[in-house]
Amino acid sequence: MRTTIGSLALAVITLATTELLPIPARSADVTAAGKEFVELLAKQDFAAAVTRYDAAMKAALPQGKLRETWLTAQTQAGRFQKQVRARTEKLQGHDVALVTCQFEKMVLDIKVVFDSQGRVAGLFFAPAQRAPAAFNSPPYAKTNAFQERDFKVGSGEWTLPGTLSVPQGVGPWPALVLVHGSGPLDRDETVGANKPFRDLAWGLASKGVAVLRFEKRTKEYAATLAGSANKITLQEETIDDALSAVRALRSTEGIDHGRIFVLGHSLGGMAAPRIAKSDPSIAGLVIMAGPTRPLEDLVVEQTRYIISLDGKPSPEAQAKLDEIETLMAKVRTLSAADASSSEILFGAAPAYWLDLRGYDQVATAKALKQPMLIIQGARDYQVTEADFNGWKNGLGSRVNTTYKLYPDLNHLFMTGVGKSAPSEYERSGHVAEIVVDDVAAWIQK
Q: For domain 134-295+339-444, which architecture applies?
């Protein structure tokens, strides 16, 4: 539904199918069709690509918007190099060709969704996922110190599968709900080779804190939500489900119902004060790399940073930046009259952008009574020290507020050296132990 600013600011994600359709062609045909469609994108033959759309895609992602999507991917992932492999999978009854592609700076999975007649009904870009076996337990996780069980968040049409990590013993235990960054993320907040939410869950559960993580609604119900893309705001994307998760924990045996905290990462950190405002019984907030500036400003800043990593930007890269700036300027001029528009601007409809404009996360946080821990990695290029200082300056002398800045950590709170880059997410790592220690100590306090 939108750009993955929170987890990795590179992917415009559009799913424009409006109904669930019968299973189409054989997997071999789907794979071939997906590879052919990606080849058209690589050749920048967008006119030919849109002829393969279904009716809904033609309306939601016309030729100019498709070019913009491809532009965004290459601006941040680098120039397209080659297709690496392809396979098929299912997405809510649809057949999907998942084409893994090597770009100059990183590897992306391009998902092409097909309807029952073989027409393109949806398009996703996301960091390539490694096989689950590639994930290794962080050294600070003591897997014999906690147990995990399946856990449902919400009910009815938006029920979400999750995992509850509970320390061994009687309890009751303080608990933490993890709230994702942008994009259709899984319960582990998987980005490239990394699973920061699994790191946090296992590390904190090893230290006596129960942790609930769950699939994001925009991942679990992507096809269903596509038909109402012009109505989706931060409320439907993130906040409603976080509140459902808190309520579910309050009726869970072994949980200290008076000590249920919320941790939001990136966009989730931005949303955290709004979540706590809706439920004053939440015990406290942990804000990890939460933006305080408008997301449209961050998009431009991130793009400018990425194209400068190799020195002076090439004319082509500068042209891409100019296009992004023009698009974000359009976002800034949206008015209430645009609220019902179905036009997609950098992965989100006007209603989404307008909702964010009407929300002041710092002012909302300042009015809360709950304690807050606000943490930031100094090597983070997606949400930077400018945002961290936005919290500090905006909250001023607010009591019960703790700030921590980690010099060597990136956006995923993983250690590195030098300037951070998108390719860093391709390397397997873990959330730094000091972060786990600090969050656990703050909650236990």
A: 3-Layer(aba) Sandwich (3.40)
Does the annotation mark 94 as catalytic? no
301, exposed or middle or buried, with CB in 10 Å at 0-12, 13-18, 19+? middle
The alpha carbon torsion through 324, 326, 327, 329 (nearest 10 deg) reads 120
- Global confidence as pTM: 0.80
Asked whether the beta carbons of 344 and 355 are under 8 A apart, the reply is: no
- Rounded distance between C-alpha atoms, residue 194 and residue 305, angstroms: 22
Contact between 357 and 27 (Cβ < 8 Å): no
Is residue 428 annotated as part of the catalytic site, yes or no?
Answer: no
Residue tagged active-site, from 94, 265, 411, 430? 411
Indicate which residue of 241, 380, 387, 420 is catalytic: 380
Cα distance between residue 204 and residue 136, in whole Å: 16
Task: Delimit the domains of the chain by residue range.
Answer: 134-295+339-444
Token code pair at residue 173: 């235990």
* Number of residues that make up the chain: 445
380 has catalytic annotation:
yes
Return d(Cα 216, Cα 219) in angstroms, integer.
5
Of the residues 7, 165, 182, 266, which is catalytic? 266
Residue type for position 386: A
pLDDT tens for the chain, 445 residues long, are 333 333 333 333 332 222 222 233 345 688 999 999 999 999 999 999 999 998 888 877 888 888 888 887 887 778 899 999 998 887 766 788 899 999 887 888 898 988 878 889 888 887 776 544 445 899 999 999 999 999 999 999 999 999 999 999 988 999 999 999 998 899 999 988 899 999 999 999 999 999 999 999 988 888 777 767 788 999 999 999 999 999 999 999 999 999 999 999 999 999 999 999 999 999 999 999 999 999 999 999 999 999 899 888 888 888 889 989 999 999 999 999 999 998 888 888 999 999 999 999 999 999 999 999 999 999 999 999 999 999 999 999 999 999 999 999 999 999 999 999 988 888 899 999 999 999 999 999 8
